[in-house]
User: What shape does this take?
Amino acid sequence: MGRDLEKYLRPEVKSTPFCPGCGHGILMNLILRAIDDLQLRMDEMLFVSGIGCAAWIPSPNFNADTLHTLHGRAVAFATGAKMFNPKLKTMVISGDGDLASIGGNHLIHAARRNIDLTVICANNMIYGMTGGQVASTSPVGAITSTTTEGNIYRPFDLCKLVLGAGAPYVARYSVTQPVSLIEAIKKSLTIEGFTFVEVLSTCPTQFGRRNRYDSPTDMLTMLKESCISKQEAEQLTPEELQGKVITGEFSDGGA
Assistant: This one.
């Protein structure tokens, strides 16, 4: 059965702002499917984003109240809005550079305070919009505009970071795992407290071209091959886990 997801978009929206093959367009669709499944009212929601490609998911696309804020300050703005109007179901949607690099301090303290926010982090492992610079999530060896000979620093495990700060619900899925990702977003929206969903996304323009992925399909294939479940990970040795990304729920909200 088809869905009428256009009702969640502003009437003037005719296309997405993303590059061909960008995983953020997939994520935008999945967020709206989760909202549609839960039958949430857009006039009772607030979407907050910072600066970067992922920040364009809610604004100017969603037919709802949106805050497009300063770089790295999405969680801070969302905290203020939630304090002013606790009835708002407030969702932060932004990228790994915005949330975990420039805005990392806001992220960990919002998790520590257990503020009632849903944070969706679109992690494409690079600063996609602002020039392709290395991010705190870029893999070791990744070629970026600021690491032309390969990144030498290990990346953050964002789920471990937020889990260590005390978030009650933490999950990670790839845009190549749409069913599981929709369910995680739905769950994050129904739990009171700070919830965090890391979404592994693709950036064929800035990351892919520099790192010898010849097409968006190659990047999606890379995600499919590198993502494994927690159950699969338990059967592998540390050597076999090299290069793999564990997906699933890491804290289930106390359910």
Strands lie at 45-49, 65-68, 89-95, 118-123, 169-174, 195-200, 227-229, 245-252. The chain has a mean pLDDT of 95.
